Structures are given as structure tokens and as C-alpha cells.
From TrEMBL:
Protein name in UniProt: Exostosin GT47 domain-containing protein
Organism: Prunus armeniaca
Keyword field contains Transmembrane: yes
One Pfam family per UniProt: Exostosin_GT47
Domain of life: Eukaryota
InterPro entries associated with the record: Exostosin, Exostosin_GT47
Length: 347
């Protein structure tokens, strides 16, 4: 066993002991704080994926998709198996711009040429599609959409995400850390984070908020995030790609939305209500009152939990424990239990 494996085993054993014997009201960013780390360690040792060979080489348009795919398909990946009978899940790779007709043809080929799809009607298969796949009448696309695990980009277009099975990719985040962490503003946002022009205009004239355009200096951008108690995002049209950076730099995300959000990254791992504020789309005065009620001890707890959770939003060229790649793999591991349909042999 390598030194890294020994270290991880000791780390997870200690963490499990501490969380199991801690007071029940101790705050945690995790939905299942006493089980996530033992399960994660089991995933590292046991999880196996069979990857179908694509007909031709291709690349993904999304950086996070591309990094996930590249990391998973590394030659020395511990998760990949060449023995399909040992696989927990099957990965169906295809390019982002592949037409629905071509995707249907691809699934039809898997159904006819290999036995694995038919055993579960695709329920132990997963695929990458940044924009998500819509509902189609073709049987192959219906089974892919309804049964297989879709890994899409966050946010996923409305109607193209099924919460109980699908997963969303966290966006790539900056590696620049802030040096000045003095809190100066109640809220911070970039113009593209908010789509409602009236809200942007009102916030821009309020001295408690800092609303700015795309910064050219990433260091100053990180410091501006860290200088604010809340980072404002608008779900459904606004740019939410900075939500992981906000968590990392201690700026509690305040997400303005007019509907429940079902595709939050790592939604079956993290307690989002403990690390972010979700605000109904409303006037600035009411928005400020909601944020003011979350200040004080409540804000400090959310800030600390958010910083802890932010480790899961970091993408690394070489994957590290608990980073985005490994947390995505953990979510896939949670979805490995599928029903294998018994096929009757013809007489």
C-alpha cells in the first residue's frame, strides 16, 4: 500500500471517528457526515467503470466536461476496467455536437451488439451532455433520457435534468487566493451574474453593494469577492459559474431565483441550505432584509461551512482527494445500484 493510501485511510478513519462521536447539532456541510468518508474510501478501492470505445476521437466543448473525460480515461485510471462483467457502471462517450439521430443510432448499436444495455435498459449507464438531452420519441433516446445518468453542465436548461438520477458539473474555478479579507460590502456581483436590469441598476447605486464588470486582474477579483458577505447570482439567465469561487473565498452565495433549483452541483452530497441563501426574485429592499437576517452568527457558520465545501469545487489536472473529479465519481458510485432485468430465453 502506498504512503498516500495509508495517509488517506488514517485521515478518513480519524474523520469518521470524530463525526460519529461529535455532538449531533455540530454543523456540517454534508448531508450524511458520518457516512460520506467511509463510503468515499470504499469507492476509491472498489468502483469500476467500463468505457465503450467511441467510433472516432473527439473533444468536448466545455472545459469541465473535457477535464472530467480526460481524467477518467487516463491510461492508469484506477476506476476503469476492461472486464465489463466487473463494472458497476458503463460510460457511453459521444461529442457534444452529436445529433439526436446519431445518438439514437449509437444506442441502437449498443443494444444490438453487446448485452450490457439490455440488462438494465441503460440504467447502469451514464453519459456527458453539457446542454442535456430532451424528450424524444425514439425508443433509444427515451431509454437514455429516462434511465441513464446524465452528467450535464450547471445550470442545465429547463426540462433537461431529472433530479433523482442526473448530475451537474461544477464549473472551473480560479486558483487565485485573496490576500485582503476585510469585509467592506454586504453584497458583490458581476454584471453578467445578474440578468434583471432593474435589480442591477438599483444595486449599482446602493453603497452596500459592489457591482462591477469582468475584472482583468484575477487577484483583485478574488479580493473583491472576499471583501463581501454575500455574492449575488441569478439562476435562470444569469451566470452562476462563480458560485464555487464564492464559497472558497468566504462569500456566501445568495442565489436569486423564481423556482426551486434542482441541478445544483453535488446536491446529494452537500447541504446547500447551510452554505447558500436562496432568495425569491424581488425588490432590492426586500433582498437586503433577507440578507440582513442572515448576518451575524448565522453568516459566520455558513461562511465556514462553505469554505469547507469548496474543496469539492476545485478541478485539478492531476486529481486530488475530494476534488471535483473525485466528488463526481462519488456521486456516480451512489448511483451504481440498478435493477437488472431478467431476460427470458426463447424455448
Amino acid at each position: 500500500m502506498s504512503l498516500t493510501s495509508i495517509f488517506l485511510l488514517l485521515y478518513f478513519s480519524l474523520f469518521t471517528f470524530l463525526t460519529t462521536h461529535s455532538k449531533p447539532h455540530l454543523p456540517s456541510p454534508y448531508l450524511s457526515p458520518t457516512t460520506i468518508f467511509p463510503n468515499y474510501q470504499n469507492m476509491l478501492k472498489s468502483f469500476k467503470i467500463f468505457i465503450y470505445n467511441p467510433n472516432t476521437p473527439f473533444t468536448f466543448n466545455s472545459p469541465s466536461q473535457s477535464l472530467f473525460y480526460t481524467t477518467l480515461t487516463l491510461q492508469d485510471s484506477a476506476f476503469v476496467t476492461q472486464d465489463a462483467e466487473q463494472a458497476h457502471l458503463f460510460f457511453v462517450p459521444f461529442p457534444s455536437d452529436l445529433s439526436t439521430r446519431s445518438i439514437a443510432r449509437l444506442i441502437r448499436g449498443l443494444r444490438n451488439d453487446l448485452p450490457y444495455w439490455n440488462r438494465t435498459l441503460g440504467a447502469d449507464h451514464f453519459y456527458l451532455s453539457c446542454a442535456g438531452i430532451g424528450y424524444e420519441s425514439d425508443r433509444n433516446l427515451v431509454e437514455l433520457k429516462k434511465n441513464s445518468v446524465q452528467i450535464s453542465c450547471f445550470p442545465t436548461p429547463a426540462g433537461k435534468f431529472i433530479p433523482h438520477k442526473d448530475i451537474s458539473l461544477p464549473p472551473l474555478a480560479s486558483s487565485h487566493a485573496p490576500t485582503n479579507k476585510t469585509t467592506r460590502f454586504l453584497g458583490y456581483a458581476r454584471f453578467n451574474w445578474l440578468k434583471e436590469s432593474t435589480l442591477v441598476n438599483e444595486l449599482s447605486s446602493d453603497p452596500e453593494f459592489l457591482i462591477e464588470s469582468e475584472p482583468s486582474d484575477l487577484n483583485s477579483y478574488a479580493e473583491r469577492i472576499a471583501s463581501s458577505k454575500f455574492c449575488l447570482f441569478e439562476y435562470g439567465g444569469g451566470d452562476v459559474s462563480g458560485i464555487g469561487e464564492a464559497l472558497r473565498f468566504g462569500c456566501v452565495p445568495a442565489v436569486v431565483t423564481d423556482r426551486p433549483i434542482q441541478d445544483l452541483p453535488f446536491s446529494d452530497v452537500l447541504r446547500w441550505q447551510e452554505i447558500a441563501v436562496f432568495v425569491e426574485r424581488r425588490e432590492v429592499g426586500e433582498l437586503k432584509r433577507v440578507l440582513a437576517r442572515t448576518c451575524g452568527d448565522r453568516h459566520e457558520k455558513m461562511k465556514g461551512l462553505g469554505v469547507t465545501a469548496s474543496r469539492h469545487f476545485v478541478w485539478n489536472e492531476t486529481p486530488q482527494p475530494l476534488d471535483s473529479f473525485h466528488t463526481l465519481m462519488y456521486q456516480l458510485w451512489l448511483r451504481r445500484h440498478t435493477i437488472r432485468y431478467v431476460r427470458r430465453e426463447s424455448a
